Automatic annotation (TrEMBL):
<dbReference type="InterPro" id="IPR016160">
    <property type="entry name" value="Ald_DH_CS_CYS"/>
</dbReference>
<protein>
    <submittedName>
        <fullName>Aldehyde dehydrogenase family</fullName>
    </submittedName>
</protein>
<comment type="similarity">
    <text>Belongs to the aldehyde dehydrogenase family.</text>
</comment>
<feature type="active site">
    <location>
        <position position="263"/>
    </location>
</feature>
<dbReference type="GO" id="GO:0016620">
    <property type="term" value="F:oxidoreductase activity, acting on the aldehyde or oxo group of donors, NAD or NADP as acceptor"/>
</dbReference>
<dbReference type="InterPro" id="IPR016161">
    <property type="entry name" value="Ald_DH/histidinol_DH"/>
</dbReference>
<dbReference type="Pfam" id="PF00171">
    <property type="entry name" value="Aldedh"/>
</dbReference>
<dbReference type="InterPro" id="IPR029510">
    <property type="entry name" value="Ald_DH_CS_GLU"/>
</dbReference>
<feature type="domain" description="Aldehyde dehydrogenase">
    <location>
        <begin position="175"/>
        <end position="486"/>
    </location>
</feature>
<dbReference type="InterPro" id="IPR015590">
    <property type="entry name" value="Aldehyde_DH_dom"/>
</dbReference>
<dbReference type="InterPro" id="IPR016162">
    <property type="entry name" value="Ald_DH_N"/>
</dbReference>
<dbReference type="InterPro" id="IPR016163">
    <property type="entry name" value="Ald_DH_C"/>
</dbReference>
<keyword id="KW-0560">Oxidoreductase</keyword>
Length: 495
């Protein structure tokens, strides 16, 4: 449910100092909602099938949720379509009242923050301190931000030649995430981590959202494909892999030319110059990569370090990785939890072996921790070359790769030599270098002297294979409306 973002960077250590101020987690949070949610009611799957949900910390099943099939998806889409009908209650609701509903939902999430963070830690493995201090806070801030936009996204009047009055309207697309603009939604969370999404579905009902405005179906690739091909769905917003994003693009075009927003993979470079404080750059790059065990599309996985400080940077990065606290994600001192599941852990361990065979030098880590759960040691590779597998694959795991550079022109070319273009970082005080790199980097976000800062006000998205469109900020709103041009013939212009 909660997208993984990092606003820690230089502030991360301060947050850990203040961890005692966080409310304690619920060690065994109750999983209350496990059904399919549409028309403001909970339903069993029509097929009778269920999906087991596991804890990555123990590898044990923690819940069974209803597995949606085609009939369930149809029912959810019909529910959303009915709520979106012309002259429906939702379509005629004042924009300010839509904003109030989002504020109410934000307040309910705030009230249940400990439970939601505990569910996310249980189901996702993210350390509770991160779930509480980052994910929940960003979720609440984002809801309140877009609540404020509900009655402020205005159209325009256009001075047209002749005796005509011309204006535009921003109309909701149809089934889409931007509830603030009057859309209705069918949400499909990951079948691996659905628990917080199901809880929030119940909160939308408590907040007073009309039936059919918010609907949730849990399932695998078949459910996603059904939604993407459904003729009554007008917009798809997807966060996930580039491979799946390409399927969605095809489905959208082959069905009814759905509008799509895709936030996909990344292989994000961070360029570190010798003039910047070494400790701060090491700390920033460490958190940029190891946040949520590297399971973030924005992970700073390629650290390009100026040659004159390379050896010292590697040495201090290794020291930092060795000190990272790995353990039970419910423990407030834990910084590093498990990978999401067995298959991802095995894939990452395979990439570690491939990196060693390619000639990358393993400096620390590289092994599984224990036999219970899916823990991998914080891992650092040095002497990584651009043609090595580790420098090209989106690893989505706790593997830091440190590369060396001498010239700024060269490192810019190397940083851009990837199919991805999500984000990049720069550490230097030299404004000429900052502007040169900022303009040359083919990415959607450039973070200077502090990596991965994401807030609801700024647009987020990528170039190239990292996706289409933008999430967050005013630019996001453009993704969820259709612009209608209206021209009225009048007798005579008055102005």
């Amino acid at each position: 449910m909660f997208q993984l973002t990092r606003s820690f960077v230089e502030k991360s250590q301060k947050r850990y100092i203040n961890y005692k101020k966080l409310p304690p987690p619920i060690l065994q949070p109750k999983v209350a909602e496990t059904g399919i949610f549409y028309n403001n009611e909970w339903h069993k799957a029509k097929s009778g099938k269920t999906i087991k949900v596991y804890s990555p910390t123990t590898g044990e099943a923690i819940a069974e949720v209803e597995a949606a099939g085609k009939e369930d998806v149809d029912a959810a889409v019909i529910s959303a379509s009915k709520a979106f009908e012309y002259q429906s209650y939702w379509r005629t609701l004042n924009a300010s009242e839509r904003g109030n509903l989002l504020h109410k939902l934000a307040s309910l999430i705030e009230k249940d923050a400990v439970l939601l963070a505990s569910l996310e830690t249980l189901n996702n493995g993210i350390p509770y301190v991160y779930a509480m201090s980052s994910l929940l806070k960003l979720t609440i801030r984002t809801l309140r931000y877009f609540a404020g936009w509900a009655d402020k996204y205005h159209a325009k009047t256009i001075p047209m030649d002749g005796n005509f009055f011309c204006y535009t309207r921003h109309e909701p697309v149809g089934l889409a995430p931007a509830v603030a603009l009057g859309n209705t939604i069918v949400l499909k969370p990951s079948r691996v981590t659905p628990l917080t999404a199901l809880h929030v579905a119940e909160l939308t009902k408590k907040a007073g959202f009309p039936p059919g405005v918010v609907n949730v179906t849990v399932g695998g690739a078949d459910v996603g494909e059904t939604l993407c091909k459904h003729p009554k769905v007008d917009k798809i917003s997807f966060t996930g892999s580039t491979r799946v994003g390409k399927f969605i693009q095809t489905y959208a075009i082959d069905s009814n030319f759905k509008r799509i927003t895709l936030e996909l993979g990344g292989k994000n470079p961070i360029i570190i110059f010798a003039d910047f404080n070494l400790k701060n750059s090491v700390d920033g790059c460490h958190e940029a990569l190891f946040f949520n065990q590297g399971q973030a599309c924005t992970a700073g996985s390629r650290a390009y370090v100026e040659s004159k400080i390379y050896d010292e940077f590697v040495e201090k990065s290794v020291e930092k990785a060795k000190k990272r606290v790995v353990g039970d994600p419910f423990d407030l001192k834990t910084e590093h939890g498990p990978q999401i599941n067995q298959s991802n852990m095995d894939r990452i361990l395979g990439l570690i072996d491939k990196g060693i065979k390619d000639g990358s030098v393993l400096k620390t880590g590289g092994k599984r921790i224990g036999t219970k759960g899916f823990f991998i040691e914080p891992t650092v590779f040095a002497d990584v070359q651009d043609h090595h597998t580790l420098a090209n694959a989106e690893i989505f795991g706790p593997l830091q790769q440190i590369l060396k550079f001498d010239k700024i022109d060269d490192v810019l070319k190397r940083a851009n030599n990837t199919q991805y273009g999500l984000g990049a970082g720069i550490y230097t005080h030299d404004m000429e270098k900052i502007h040169y790199l900022m303009q040359g980097l083919r990415v959607g976000s450039v973070w200077v002297n502090g990596y991965g800062v994401i807030g609801p006000q700024g647009p987020f998205g990528g170039y190239k294979d990292s996706g289409w469109g933008r999430e967050l900020g005013e630019y996001c709103l453009q993704q969820y409306t259709e612009v209608k041009n209206v021209v009225i013939k009048i007798k005579k212009k008055s102005s």
